[in-house]
């Protein structure tokens, strides 16, 4: 790898982003399943379990959709780990490293492609929400702000996924990421209020980065919550900005360092 100009680095980033998109184009079924899985969860939780959920001042579906939008951002972490480990196992990563491109372009290309996938996933989920009766009540600017918080969360999860993928190295070991993804997802306010959990568990759930974003976008959309009180709820928008920034500040440098150390 060599030191290149910013313009060349941007061009390399675009090229490597295109590589990932072309790979997805050749595997449409995998992408389709990834997009439809959150839709299935909305239907399952909304219609099978939703009748048992009583949300104060609102409908459970209006509570569920923001939570599922946040969960959709988390689901991308596992896919990222598998993609990175697959490239490493097939020797693709080493071949790219031998080319005159910067580490920034290589990792940024993967991240940019994932964010594009996240935007498509958000569009599918928003359409699904509208079809099942969900509505954003507070106007276009706040709705766009909520969607921006979701993409910001996904950006942080992307770098966690890249780092774990470089750390684990093989697709088989990437399955272990499920042990991380599912507890983080369900130990949150995505589906139920942390106030319904045992005290210590509810505290962990309330401070979960996923809960911060889910609560923040409910407030921005004007959707119902369980009217819980406490610092994490009252400052949810601030936490939804801070948590991804903190995670990115930790895992982006770790991913770059791990990538540089692959050949050692």
UniProtKB/TrEMBL annotation:
It is found in: Cell membrane; Membrane. It holds the Pfam family ABC2_membrane. This is Transport permease protein. It is a multi-pass membrane protein. Belongs to the ABC-2 integral membrane protein family. InterPro entries: ABC2_TM (IPR013525), ABC2_TM_bact-type (IPR047817), ABC_2_transport (IPR000412), Nod_factor_ABC_transporter (IPR051784). GO terms for molecular function: ABC-type transporter activity. It comes from Actinoplanes digitatis. GO terms for biological process: response to antibiotic. GO terms for cellular component: ATP-binding cassette (ABC) transporter complex. The keyword Isomerase does not apply. Keywords: Antibiotic resistance, Cell membrane, Membrane, Transmembrane, Transmembrane helix, Transport. The chain crosses the membrane at residues 29-51, 63-85, 115-136, 142-168, 180-201, 236-256. The keyword Lipid biosynthesis does not apply. Residues 29-262 form the ABC transmembrane type-2 domain.
């Amino acid at each position: 790898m060599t030191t290149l100009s910013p313009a060349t680095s941007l061009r390399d980033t675009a090229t490597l982003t295109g590589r990932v998109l072309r790979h997805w184009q050749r595997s449409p079924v995998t992408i389709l399943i990834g997009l439809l899985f959150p839709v299935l969860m909305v239907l399952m939780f909304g219609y099978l379990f939703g009748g048992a959920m009583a949300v104060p001042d609102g409908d459970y579906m209006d509570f569920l959709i923001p939570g599922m939008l946040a969960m959709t951002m988390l689901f991308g972490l596992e896919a990222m780990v598998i993609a990175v480990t697959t490239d490493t196992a097939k020797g693709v990563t080493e071949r790219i490293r031998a080319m005159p491109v910067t580490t920034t372009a290589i990792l940024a290309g993967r991240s940019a492609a994932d964010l594009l996938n996240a935007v498509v996933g958000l569009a599918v989920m928003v359409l699904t929400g509208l079809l099942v009766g969900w509505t954003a009540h507070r106007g276009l600017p706040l709705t766009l702000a909520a969607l921006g918080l979701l993409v910001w969360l996904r950006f942080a999860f992307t770098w966690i996924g890249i780092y774990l993928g470089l750390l684990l190295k093989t697709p088989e070991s990437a399955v272990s990421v499920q042990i991380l993804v599912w507890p983080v997802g369900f130990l949150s306010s995505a589906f139920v209020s942390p106030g319904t959990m045992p005290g210590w568990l509810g505290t962990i759930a309330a401070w979960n980065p996923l809960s911060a974003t889910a609560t923040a976008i409910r407030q921005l959309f004007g959707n119902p919550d369980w009217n819980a009180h406490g610092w994490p709820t009252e400052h949810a928008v601030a936490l939804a900005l801070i948590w991804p920034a903190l995670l990115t500040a930790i895992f982006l440098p770790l991913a770059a360092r791990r990538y540089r150390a692959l050949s050692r």
